[in-house]
Design goal:
alpha+beta; Lipocalin; 2 domains; nine-stranded antiparallel β-sheet; 2 helices
């Protein structure tokens, strides 16, 4: 009887240890999971984080958004108010990210210029509560996205 209790206890301890290590692995995988469609909630304009609630009435796009189909493909497609764009990216350790080869018609208006500048100045990202936050070299958020359904 004691032997069965010891074996049961060992199995319980092993399952707890294994469960903890599995959850740590999935958490670290989720930390870098930026796949999906993201809509801009706020954007740094003239060095001030500004909520983007309304867009110009003549804008061909209904929002400023990006599509990250898969982090292994290493590109992002998206649109600013008047332009569409693509940009290559690379995720490094500690949620650092770099963008290069941005292809966009000359950005139109203050929002397009601010979006382009902020994308290219992004050094790292953070994911929290369905928000994707791009952070610059001064450790300030420059673009805040919300997950689109």
């Amino acid at each position: 009887m004691k032997r069965i209790l010891k074996i049961t206890l060992m199995i319980s301890v092993l399952s707890i240890i294994t469960g903890n290590s599995c959850s740590k692995t999935s958490k670290s995988e989720n930390e870098n999971n930026i796949n999906g469609v993201w809509k801009v909630k706020a954007l740094s304009i003239s060095d001030e984080l500004t909520n983007i609630d309304t867009l110009p009435e003549d804008a061909p796009y209904s929002d400023i958004s990006i599509l990250i189909p898969d982090t292994r493909q290493e590109y992002i497609k998206g649109n600013t108010v008047y332009n569409s764009f693509t940009v290559e990216f690379e995720i490094k350790e500690h949620q650092q990210i770099s963008f290069k080869n941005l292809v966009m018609r000359p950005p139109a208006g203050e929002l397009g210029e601010a979006f382009k500048e902020n994308m290219l100045n992004t050094l790292k990202f953070n994911i929290s509560n369905n928000e994707l936050i791009f952070i610059d070299v001064q450790n300030k958020p420059v673009i805040i996205f919300i997950k689109k359904n």
